[in-house]
Amino acid sequence: MKAFLHRLAAAYGSAIILMFFSEYFFVNEQPVAELLTTLKSSPVLAIPAFVSFAGFYTLFTYPMLMALSYFNVRTLSGLFLAGALFGWATEGLTIPVIYQDMPVSFVFPSIGWHALIDVLVGWYLVRLGMRRLGPFGNGVMFIALGIAWGFWATWFWGAGEGMAPLTPNDFVLLAVVSSGFWLLGMGLSNRFGAMAFKASRWEVAFIIVVALGLSGMVAYPYLPLSLAIVPLVGLSILAMWRGRTFGGGQTVLQRLAEKPVPNWTYLLALLTPMSAIPTYFWAFEAKIQVPTEAIVLTLLAVGVGWFAVAIVAPFVARSKNNKSA
């Protein structure tokens, strides 16, 4: 039971991180609007709202962590595929986003944002940097993250019926409150993620049954085209399985548990909202918007290209290894 609670705490902490980058760093209009409304009307309710929202994200996060553990994922490409599972779960288990503009919706935001930004950058590289970079390196990393956040928060400006641009004061509320929860998530995941994440059989069975049930209900109205997601998920799992015994070195989860995270890195993480706020203030006053379409197309292209490489690489590597043997 203790091991399960540790896994649950690690998954919940990871879910908070992924939720932060999925919703608040991304500046997803509806969740951001709901958070700001709650903070202005009943700020105390923001805490249970965060807690319950992260609970949903735990369901999306668990398959990724199980894949990383079971397949001994060592490479960034393997992590990218596990991140794709998280992205498809996020956009397809409780909402039908992945089926609303097929086949592009199979890639963005599930792969082009969730796998690339949420998982590779937010969940992995930032936490790895907290362990391996010194004070200067961490400072640069968190400031760069904040500047990117401040500029990206302009992505939806002029999007017709979308949310109006956030006022600078609203962005301050968003940055400060969501960053506080992000720090909590990193603390939980760093503390409990140091232990081996070995899901029990009943955990695996429960996640599979729930995922199949939810995805079936969400995908049903979009049949038969929605079935196209099945081979993509299957190929991702097959590629991770194929590469599970190939190569050496630490796994992704082992790297994130190789040594404790220094406490001072959490203080430096505050540089992210501290740099995001003046960046957004400047962009707002200067009326500078990021080139949203160009960025999305770039993320889309990188996502498609990396996914193709990640699927093929384990088979090519194993074939070469067999020939040399």
Quick synopsis:
It is built from 14 helices and no strands.
Spans of at least 5 consecutive residues with low confidence: none
Overall average residue pLDDT: 92
Helix count?
Answer: 14
State the helical fraction: over 70%
The radius of gyration is 20 Å
Helix and strand content put the structural class at mainly alpha
Strand coverage percent: under 5%
DSSP strand count: 0
Oligomerization state of this entry? single chain
Describe the global form: globular
Distance between the termini: 44 Å
Model description:
This protein is 74% helix and 0% strand. The chain has helices at residues 2-25, 29-41, 46-70, 76-92, 104-107, 110-132, 135-152, 168-192, 201-219, 229-242, 252-255, 263-269, 271-286, 292-324. The protein is globular, with a radius of gyration of 20 Å. The N and C termini lie far apart (44 Å). The mean pLDDT is 92.
Write the layout of secondary structure elements.
Elements: H1 2-25, H2 29-41, H3 46-70, H4 76-92, H5 104-107, H6 110-132, H7 135-152, H8 168-192, H9 201-219, H10 229-242, H11 252-255, H12 263-269, H13 271-286, H14 292-324
Key words describing this protein structure:
single chain, 325 residues, mainly alpha, 14 helices
